[in-house]
C-alpha cells in the first residue's frame, strides 16, 4: 500500500489558451493535515477537482493512494470532498441528506452523522437552504466525514463564514480528524486559520507549486537575515534568496538555508513566521510568472 495519499506529476489543466494549473508536481503523505494556500485564481480548486476525478488533466497525472481517481470505483469511495460554497440540495432536510448518503455510499456511518448534527444543535427537519452559512458548512463536513474517507478534500469551506464560525469549523475538523486516520487537504487563502490545524503546506501561485513540505521543516529551513548591503548570492549557507529589500547600507533577506548554519556575525538572523513565508513565496511566484511571460511573448 502506498504511503502517499495524493501524488501528482507535471499535472496540468488548460481552459482554451490559459493554464489553470501547470507543471504541478507534489506528494502528500498519508496522515497529514495539509494547507493548500494561494490567491484566487492560483489553481487550488482545479487541483482539487483533478484529485477527485471531476476533471480530466491536459498534462501529467494525479494519483490517490496510487490509483487514477477518474471513474475509479475502488478509490472514489476513499475520498470525501466538500466543494466551494458547500453545495447541498437546498430543499432537502438534514435527515433527507443523511438518508441519501446511506443509499449512495457503501461505507456510510449514519449514526456518526446523526450524533454530530445533534451535538451541533442543527435542526434535522429544516430545509438546508434555510440554515445559516456556518450550519451548512458543518452539515457538508459531517456528510463528507460520514463517508469515512481516507482522504478528505476541502475547497475553501470557511471562506464565507465569520471569524467565530470559521474557528468553530476548524475546531470541529480537528476533532473529527483526531478520531480517524484521515488525510486532509484544506484549500484556503487564510493562513491564520490553516496555521492552527495544519502540519503540511502547499503554496500555489500562477498555476504552479511554489513550495511544499512539512510546516515545521519549512520554517526551520528559512531565515530572515539583516546585515550589510551585499549581493545575496555570495552568502555561504544560503540555498536560495526568496525575497530581498535594500537600503543604501543594509539588506534584509528571506532565505532558504542549506548545509551548516550561517555564522557570519555581521548578519542578524530571525525565525520566519508562517504567514511571512507564504507571502514571500507568493510574491516570488508572481515575479517568476512575469519573467516567463516576457520570455514567451
From TrEMBL:
Q: What keywords would UniProt list here?
A: ATP-binding, Nucleotide-binding, Transport
Pfam families registered for this protein in UniProt: ABC_tran (PF00005)
Q: Write down the CDD domains for this protein, in alphabetical order.
A: ABC_DR_subfamily_A
Q: Which Gene3D superfamilies match?
A: P-loop containing nucleotide triphosphate hydrolases (3.40.50.300)
Q: Which GO terms describe its molecular function?
A: ATP binding; ATP hydrolysis activity
In terms of InterPro entries, this protein maps to:
AAA+_ATPase (IPR003593), ABC_transporter-like_ATP-bd (IPR003439), ABC_Transporter_VariousFunc (IPR051782), P-loop_NTPase (IPR027417)
Q: Which residues form the ABC transporter domain?
A: 6-231
* Stated name of the protein: ABC transporter ATP-binding protein
Q: What organism is listed for this UniProt entry?
A: Streptomyces lunaelactis
